[in-house]
Amino acid sequence: DGGITQSPKYLFRKEGQNVTLSCEQNLNHDAMYWYRQDPGQGLRLIYYSQIVNDFQKGDIAEGYSVSREKKESFPLTVTSAQKNPTAFYLCASSPPGTVYNEQFFGPGTRLTVL
Amino acid sequence: GQQVMQIPQYQHVQEGEDFTTYCNSSTTLSNIQWYKQRPGGHPVFLIQLVKSGEVKKQKRLTFQFGEAKKNSSLHITATQTTDVGTYFCAGGGKLIFGQGTELSVKP
Asked: Which of B21, B4, B1 is closest to B90 using CA atoms?
């Protein structure tokens, strides 16, 4: 089955620790995205990548870092510099040739920092 | 910066009643997309509108894009319990998401 996988589904970390969230897709999509979702708010863009070895900051990139070494993978690191990291994190990808970025989302990772 | 506002934030309806959520942008949008997120799930793409005044239907769902391309609406006729979830609009080239409307349906 083609799709986007995120692991783990739930993640608990102590304050001050960095944590890396996994995102893998086998859809052959070029573009990949990371969003953060908080209760009562829409999705906010953290980082996006349109091609391997290239990525851009979104609206709330501070305290986060990413890499795009392979087309299939776009891991997100939540660093200790992120002031309020507890949230639901969603990874998405877009198919090639799409002008307006229809997005396919993974199941998400719910991060809780204690 | 560009903002996309969505109202209402919550809507509770009796099964069989209609439901509408509205999306308004501070600037003209190149396109508008709608997503549905079931409780505990992830957003799923429903539809995309591109043309001014465009109207699209998916069974009981009707999507409209305003003439000025600054607003959009999603209307559900005769809601069912399977319609429960949060509906998001998202617009523009970088897809700015609205806050979402959470729909609950009482059987």
From this structure: B4
